[in-house]
Structures are given as structure tokens and as C-alpha cells.
Amino acid sequence: MSASGTPADAGRNAVKRAAAEAAVELVENGMVVGLGTGSTAAFALEALARRHRQGLRFLGIPTSERTAAAARAAGLPLTTFAEHRQIDLTIDGADEVERGTLNLIKGLGGALLREKIVAAASHRLAIVADAGKLADRLGTLAPVPVEVVGFGLEATRASLEALGASTRLRKAPDGEPFATDGGNRILDCSFGPLSDPARLERRIRHVVGVVECGLFISRADPVIVADQAGVHRLDSPRAHRGSPPILLVMGLSGAGKSTVALELRARLGWPFEEGDALHPEANIAKMHAGIPLTDADREPWLARVAAWIDARRAARQPGIITCSALKRSYRQVVVGSRPEVRLVYLRGGRDLIAEHLMGRRGHFMPPTLMQSQIETLEEPDPDEDPLTVDVGSPARDVADTIIRRLAAASPAGWRATPV
């Protein structure tokens, strides 16, 4: 790919090349490598060709006919899914990267279907991007490309617009509708900033006539970002390797644990469990009757919470679970020596908690038990490393704060480190 003659474009290309070369350092001898499509991925292809000439041996699976042609011209050996069902590492670009979650929008290059097939078969998806592609909320910078079949396009378009999209049929340079490698069309769908990209992805894919969409949720690991200051690696909070994090959202009843946890699930795409649902029937009956639970009552409940956490750990999956965890001794049961668990403490004043409790309908925890909860509460100590967030803002904003602070604190699995 030739660089533009303008200084601004030359600077952007230098940044993209730096990020791509850092990503190529992840490739090891004997790997099957997914080869992405787009301007930044083209720089990765150049770097791979150079490494191959230097003796690095790997096989590539391209995500588009354009990439396949470029790879052959560069002398790179290619393979297919008929020979290799699994891909060790894919290097690709992105049109937008959401800070904290590393959720993506891809497909402005027109190869989103093959890119998603390759990503789904990959153990790791390394994304290379310049810093201008980062956004606090997905959908701020780029539309969501949706690949659709040509037949019935008008009906499919109407269904997508019913989901809230402003749609535009993508055109080729000659003014004709753009055709993907599969012979399909692309509708670029603008929804604005997305509060629940995972749910939107599901809704789009359920529309008859849709082939695939450009939302890539819980897939990137890592994202390598470059700007004029240098190159940085952002590791995924959802990385299904090592010790994926498990968030235990704790606090008084009425602090909004479930609502915030659902917002976190929407943003992160992690498995979620409502801790109250794990209470034995006897506990629920006591709370319905306005009788405070004893430590003995809570023992089987805490054991179930711990078992859920251990199941996630055994499956090497991240997760989110709500649990009041009011006493330090309770937290010892569910956290214990589990380094993957991060306490997220939702702290709220008495008046705010009372207001929330009075507004709830049908919950088995009545407002009359608020005082016993306050008396039981032992706020987390500094050595428990809690992430404490004051509630009172909308749950969506509280979830955003949690994600930003987890990323900024850079514990394992959330780290942004120089390459």
C-alpha cells in the first residue's frame, strides 16, 4: 500500500505501520494466521512478508479475495479451512474500538462476513488501530455495517430501520451497489452511541435477509494502538486465557446491584448470575416475612455463590455475580483465595437506599429489613482491594465508571501496557 503524499496522511500511515509491526511480533513459527482486510491490516501483511523472508514459517487464511491476492503477490503461503479448522492468531484492523470493553465495529472495508468467520475460528484476534479509532461508546465514530442478501433488500432495510437505524446502501466507486465477496450488499446502519451492543447484534442477526453484521463483541485480544507518542497494547477484560476476571457486585439491598450488573453484562458480554436467585427457599420465606437472616441462614447461600464462581473459574470464563456480601467473613467465603474475583462495592446513603427499596415491586426483600442490613454491613477494607462506586447516577453511567476504573487500575486482564 503506498503512502499518501500529504504530511498528515504520511503521519497516519507511520502510526498504522508501527501498530501492525507490533502485532506481527505475536506470530510464532508453525502458526496458522488469519490475514485481515483493510488499510491497517495491509501494513501487517507487509510486515508478515518481511518476517517470512527472514525465516518465520506460518500459513495464512485471508479474510477477503483482495487480501488473498496481496498475500500471494508477497509470496506468503496460504491454506484453507479444509486443511486447518482452527486459527492460532488473526491480525486485523477495526473501524471503531470501545475503550474498556474492546468491543469492535468492523466491516467498512466490505469483508465483515469472512472477517467474522475467521475471528470465530481464531484462538486470538489481535486488532491493530490508530488512536483515532478509540471511542468511549461504540457507535460514536462509525456506522454498523450489515451484510444483506440482495433479494428483498427493501424489506430487510425497513426491518433494520425499525430497530432504530438510519441506513445507507453502500456504493462502489462506479456508483453501483457495492458487492461483497459473497455477492451480497451492505447497509451501513447508524444507531448512534450503543448502550447494549451485544443485544443489538442479536437483534440485527435475527432480521430475515441479514447475513452478518459488523459488531464484534467479546472477541478482540489484544488491541494494539499507536499514536504519535508510541505503541500501546490493550489486553481484553474478557480474555479467555490465564485467569479471566469475575466481578462480584456487592452492597446493600436497594443499591442497584442487579441493574448495574445487567448494564455490565450488556457492555462486556460476560455470563451473569443474580445472587439472590441462589437463596434457599427457607431464606426467601424468612425475608418475605420481614425476618432478618442469620449467619447460619446465609451459609448455604454463600456456598452456592462460591460454587457459581468456581464453575466460571473451572471453565476459564469471566463472569458477573451480584451478592450483598455484607460482612468480611461472608466475603472470605466467596472471594477467599480466588484472585480472579474483583469486589465492586456499590455505596449508597441511607435515604437513597430507602428510596430505591420503596420503589421496588415484588421483591422478597422488604424495606423493613433495611435497618438490619445497615447494621450488618462491614464496608470492604483497603486490603480487600474493592472498587467502590457511589450510586445515585443512572445505572448505565455507574457501569461506565466501573469499566473505566477497572481499565485504568490495570489489574490482570485489564492492563494497557507499552509494547
TrEMBL record:
MF-aspect GO terms: ATP binding; gluconokinase activity; ribose-5-phosphate isomerase activity
List of residues binding substrate: T37, G38, S39, T40, D92, G93, A94, D95, K106, G107, L108, G109, K133
Presence of keyword Isomerase: yes
Keyword entries, A-Z: ATP-binding, Gluconate utilization, Isomerase, Kinase, Nucleotide-binding, Transferase
Record flagged with keyword Isomerase: yes
Pathway: Carbohydrate degradation; pentose phosphate pathway; D-ribose 5-phosphate from D-ribulose 5-phosphate (non-oxidative stage): step 1/1; Carbohydrate acid metabolism
Pfam families recorded: Rib_5-P_isom_A
Any one GO biological process: pentose-phosphate shunt, non-oxidative branch
Extent of the signal sequence: none
UniProt EC number: 5.3.1.6
CDD domains: GntK, RPI_A
Family: Belongs to the ribose 5-phosphate isomerase family. Belongs to the gluconokinase GntK/GntV family.
PANTHER family referenced in this protein's UniProt entry, alphabetically: RIBOSE-5-PHOSPHATE ISOMERASE 3, CHLOROPLASTIC-RELATED
Biological role stated in the UniProt entry: Catalyzes the reversible conversion of ribose-5-phosphate to ribulose 5-phosphate.
Protein name: Ribose-5-phosphate isomerase A
Source species of the chain: Tistlia consotensis USBA 355
Gene: rpiA
